[in-house]
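Notes from hallway chat w/ T.B., transcribed later so I don't forget. T.B. wanted the structure written out for a chain they're using in a teaching module, and asked if we could keep both sequence and structure tokens in one place. Agreed to drop them here.
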Amino acid sequence: MADGDRLKPALEWFEQQGWQPLPFQLETWQAYLAGKSGMIQVPTGSGKTYAAVMGAILEMLHDPSSGLKLLYITPLRALSRDIQQSILRPIQEMGWNLRVESRTGDTSSSQKSKQLKNMPDILITTPESLAVMLSYKGAKERFQSLRAIILDEWHELLSAKRGTQTELCLSHLRQLQPQLKTWAVSATLGNVREAAQAAVGLGCEPVVIQSNLQRQTIIKSILPASVDSFPWAGHLGLRMFQELVDALDINRSTLIFTNTRAQAERWFQALLFAVPEYVDRIALHHGSIDVQERKAIEAGVKAGHIKWVVCTSSLDLGVDFQPVERVVQIGSAKNLARLLQRAGRSAHVPEGTSEILFLPTNALELLEISAFRSGLTAGDIETRRPLEKPYDVLAQHLVTLACGDGFKADECLETIRQTVAYSQLTAEEFDWTLNFIEKGGKCLGAYPRYQKVVQTEGLYQVTDQKIGRMHRMSIGTITSNQAVQIVYTNRRRIGTVEENFVSRLKKGDVFFFAGRQLEFFMMKDMVVYVKNTTQKSTVTPTWGGGNLAISDSLSMHLRSEIEKFQPDASSKQKLNQELECMLPIASTQKRISHLPASNELLIEVCKTREGQHLYVFPFEGRFVHEGLGFLWGYRFASQQKATFTISVNDYGFEILAPKDYPFKQLFGDRFLDLENLYENIKSGLNISELTQRKFRGIAQVAGLVFKGYPSARKDANQLQVSSSLLYGVFSKYEPDNLLLKQAEQEVLRDQLETHRLTKTLDRLSQLNVVWKETKRPSPFAFPLLVERLNSRMSNESLLDRIERLKQQWINK
């Protein structure tokens, strides 16, 4: 059949809508029907979903058969509702005989059981739900009709363990169905070819489909009337809520993004305080609010009843909000890709113009806004890379396969090596993992619960039903703090908070959550009971993972923006409004210290009553600075011993030493040397403590600790004790344990970004070092001093201390 005939059903439906298929959509359908796999990368809101699914639907219509034919994998279960509606729309309107269902954590147990016996034609699911399906016997029959897999928002999965889990599941499905086609969908990625290869697996040449659709992003700022010459993190923030309210229009649909859930709660509270008459038209949306409430909010936005939504990354991804006209970003997005993703929520149509309004939470973020504009003009986007052979995910995957139909070692190793993540997996590492799940490794052989897999005639299987049940409950790679349900005393659900927040509450304590003032009543069986109250409180729950760091792409543009304040630069080009607003800070920085050029590294030394301060400004992001701070601390101490206090932010780091510590005299080329880098970092900080903390999550993923059954979940302390005991045993009796090795690698990679640290040291070694002795901390140094003060306990409020310090220095 000619291509035109096979495309006819899709073209007819598009014509009914008054649409014309875009060139990239036609190209994708044709590539799919030609048996190709690949990746679609086009701007947000351009019609990626129909580009991805229509080829598979056309194949089903042309060659009908029973059973599951298309798996659509999404990173967020919240997206599955929207995706299902989008796919159902042409099927229902055209009367095509296809069944579409979703299977996520929100799907009922009875529905899941029915699906395993009678699969739909198209199933929308998450990586975790796919892994659970593979853990049941009969996977070969269940997936025998499968023709294609679509990976939605692939950039969100790619560089996390969920992406690795997805790669492993897909490799197994390809072993069952060698002709399987894979199509990844992504909006924002800098390394498209590498990402596409990870999606389709090795041994397949991916087709990369991009479009020439021009999607303009307009960045506007809400500027403070004046800036403090001594800025600090958060010093603008909520003080500017009235300026935000004045800049918004309640009749224009607006998403207000924050970087953390706690920040979203506070801003929602501030907006309700500012415009109480619009209480029914403003909503709060984040991942810890109950799913039914989130659904109601999303429906309200689409229907136009709700106009302003304060939200987090829960609405970053593909939930389709065409009515949204404007996006607000509170504080810096820290990352060009994240900014584009959020901006794309407005004007969610092909070639629409996205408008994003920035509200800085401190004056130095004006620099970041300016850097964002430069980065987008240059077309820069961050890269995301697959993880390199995480052993915990591999161990979990092998037990998953063993729970299902079982696996043979040689075949399984060959299949796993077809993934990008495990392409370099050695036979020794694979054998270690097999021994670990079969016999408990070197240390745990005496405990039956760690002997999960039995080998019979070369086939590895789980034969103990209890081990199988426990494993299915533990499938997944997300290991955040234990979440506990919050319900009213009448058992109506409100959402979830992390256990470590609840553990600090006493009966009668009031806190602000999901836009409500709640009074803590009691906690029983991992459920928190609350009631509404009129008492006021400013306490909001905090969640882990709140700190974002600027990306390498943004840091490069940030350094270029500082150079625009140089006299020769400003004479050539007019400063934009953000940099104009920052002029008082720049001129104070120049007067007290120095404004570094792009070929300079600024180091300031300052003596106060606290001691000798060293301030260093590489402008590389807080995680890189954390690594640099500990590295330099170790290198200073190895020459002259002292106790240091280190604080970091996105612009630099501070080392506080005893009075008259000779920083300048001890400094030399070796501080920028790459030799013995890892050894120095490990010696410079308590690597074993950080590794032990990281090991807790690895132990959960690898199945070493069990969170408990739903009715009797273990609390965080119990899990910590279990993983700490195992960590101690492995450290003492099996120091070459691969999971210990992985924990250390994750600390260096994730927490200290050592891959970027190496590049940073190389860059800094080529710069001219400018030393400045100052009588007081400069505007660049002041936020670092506040960062350290903020982490200290005192009966004097932070604001009072900052004001007192500024008064002391005013005449210096």
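Follow-up for T.B.: The chain has 33 helices and 26 strands. Might be a good example for the class.
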